[in-house]
Amino acid sequence: METVLQQLTRGNALCLIIILGIGGSFQSGYHITGLSSPSPYIQRFINSSWYDRYEEPPPQQTVTIIWSLIVSMYAVGGLFGAVSVKFISGMLGRKKAMICNSIIAILAAGIMLTSKGAKSYEMIIVARILHGYSAGLGVSTHLMYLGEISPRKIRGVVTLTSATFASLGKLSGQFFGLSEILGREELWNVVLCVPACFSVVQVLVLPFLPEAPRYLFIEKGDVKACKKALQSLWGQGDFKQEMDEMLAEQAAIEAAPPKSPLQLLGDRTVRWQLITMSMIYCCNQLSGMAAISTFSFDIFRKAGIPRDMIRYITLGLGVSEILTSISCGLLIEHTGRRPLFWGGYGVMSAIWVLVTVTLNLKDSSYWVPYITAGLIILFIISFCGGPAGATATLNSEIFIQSNRLAAFVLMGLQRWLVFAVLGLVFPFLINALDSYCFVIFACMCLLGCLYTFFLLPETKGKTLLEISEDFKAITLCGKSFLEEKRVETKL
Question: What does the CA dihedral 329, 163, 92, 226 come to, rounded to 10 degrees?
């Protein structure tokens, strides 16, 4: 019996996974954390640029508005990137879409790098929009590409690498932002361009690696190219099982042609898949993890951690996140997806309750703030080792090829909308509710635990058509969406 590593190294699969990772979810992860370190320097740059133009200092409100635009335009770009994934990935294919995406990231880095010399904060805003667009398009295409190259037996491990590279990106953003590395005032524009180096590598290497076999077979109808891609990725073999699976899926697609996002929303046969992914994405983003990634400094300051210690604690968060993500990759094909979801959400809910208690007791002793920091690290371990890793896998498993592009558009829209709203609301939330804002996160985690425990079917080791049938069989109060449809038809 071959190990996962042996299967990955028989062909070019491991190389493709790494190249996709550094140009895909790594970029998104880096830009989530990379802005926190140079933020005071960028605000000073806004002040100096304004003064050089108008020979008077800008009103504080103006600086705040410009800074808010720099932060929020990343999510706006991500929203447009997520919407365009169906058009670009469908027209160009997965490989060319990733290459084009990396070119956009390189262009954005060029604009960011020259903004300082040009004394233009408008260029920073444009670069952030392009970085966001690249992240929105890249994350969805990356995950789709992984799902379409992976054999059924190790599909969980392969698709989970997208979460691992996102964690690596977050850690890199924190690491390069240290003052000992690039986190100094004279280098603020450089630290925001580091991911472009990896985009260049992807543009140079990806053309020599194979296109997604499932895309070639089902969407292009090129059986010969599909088999050649499979052999290039996974070594020599006839791949009869994989070809038969794709053939069955192609037959199902011919009976039900590809749908637009609006048509998919109205399709009762995928209603449970859409509800499930929407619920999981909401619970993931409102679980508190996005708030920790973006506002870790504010959270630890509120907890009572000394300012000079915070940046090293956040670096520890990044290390624990990537180690747990790798561990999850080793577990997911043994435990299945369901236990990682409901078990992770359950532990996360309990942790937020304890964090609320320790935040209220932070003045009782000098060691209480460090208990809070330890709990947050434990939360990250629970999140990355549970829902975060399993979400990447589930997303590529529950939609057949004809529905996948439209589903990625809808999920991307939701992800970036919630991200934008959370970025705007959380600073006010933490000021208004103080430590009790984490009770909201605890409730969302509990909701995710209950939903995945009672309603989510297991997907481990099943074909996409078998998984689709399992979702159709879900009943609530003794009824399913398909039964309701049959009743309506009879009437």
Answer: 0
